[in-house]
Amino acid sequence: MSKVARIPGYQSKNPKQNRGIIGDREIRYKCSLQNVILDVLRGRPGWTEVPGQNSQVPAAQQGTRPSNNTGSSQSSNIIIPSRFSDGDWDFYWCDREWLHQNYDTMFLHEHQKILHFRNHYELTRKNLMVKNLKRLRKQTEREQGKTEAQSFDFYPTTYELPSEYHIFVEEFKKNLGIIWIMKPAAKSQGKGIFLFRRLKDITDWKKGEYQPLSDQTRDVPETYVVQRYIENPLLIGGRKFDVRVYVLVCSYNPLKVWLYRGGFARFSNTRFSLDSIEDTYVHLTNVAVQKNAPDYDPEKGCKWSTQQLRKYLAAKHGVDKVQKMFKSIDNIIIKSLQSVQKIIINDKHCFEMYGYDVLLDSDLKPWLIEINASPSLTASGKEDYDLKFGLLSDLLNVLDLENRLTGKEKRIGGWDLLWDDGPIVADDNMDCTPANGSAVSTPNSYLGCFNDRKKQLREIYLTAQSVKKS
Ligand code: ADP
Fold it and tell me: 37 alpha carbon to ligand 1 midpoint, in Å?
């Protein structure tokens, strides 16, 4: 048996069955990262690397793509052809900077696929995410009433600074004594974040940060968000954690969303307490922060798989309560994506794999903290490597450049189809069935459930083959 045929769910021994949109030639990819995604691409049978990552064709020589500044969800696939198209690749895992520089002047062939939507920042910048959520919430309240609008109660009260400083001060005065968290809108990995209780702390900060004249490199103050701090996080072993959830969007119009079963919880290294609000090792769960803690143990790490977390929570709080909590996470995913659905420049060539950060409070209520367009794909250990390898391999299986599936699948490896222009209902509920047995008509959502991805892939590829034959 050839190496190719042994890979589950990839190529058939019969080359005719392997002809996809790209035909029977190799699939050419480019990748601007040097981590697990590159391993996945290099290990994928029939795929070949195109050298010279991030190479740039001068804009003047390229085909032009009309930019869409209207804020509408109209697809921007109308392309003015050019002799100099960037057609040397079929698949590009590019970085956001490259896309920003090149998208508007890029000519893409029918089959080409590229990571990121042009204006992904509408969801992934902290201030814009909240702005878009607030807008959809208001609209929902207007059109469907207050009760329906309550389904948006999953992000902590947030204001953009400096633009909403005065509204924030009003709110601050109404709730004296609570803790707030300040975060730079466009930074990541916990950079520039601090907690405070007194307005005086922010006055000091204002002096340092909001004085453009004292900082020659900046002519406008850096945008921050100030957010109500979740003071009652759910603790395990006395430690705070948040959950990383992977979501794949293949299209915004219609909205098509996949949810990955695997993921992890990231714990802080130090026991939680509200006494030391200046201690980032207690309050920020980012791995980038925790790995610098003086007593951090790289062997032990600070992660649990989402499966482990789900099992633990079900044993401690009961299956039904945990099922409800996971359903609320589905709601967070769908509502947040809907909040930008009309704004994101939809393009059939683009896809996005988001990393959602969700914090659970002591009532098991999930809170949306942040959405990342470039979640870390660097592995922190063997288990993390396996998770990310499976996640990314199955992402390629979902995109199916080889055209080996029917396009009707509800599950592909570890990815479950959560939304396709409407909610997807589960066929069965496997080992995440609620205790009361109400498995009928449950959403097709299995976050933290058993992930027998290789077995499942073998099955769906066999089914797809026979469907295609008939
Ligand atoms: P960054 O993009 O820098 O990682 P995040 O918004 O993800 O910024 O915040 C970093 C960490 O701080 C989170 O992983 C979480 O542990 C903690 N955190 C952020 N916002 C809150 C909040 N409102 N309440 C409690 N903890 C928070």
Answer: 26
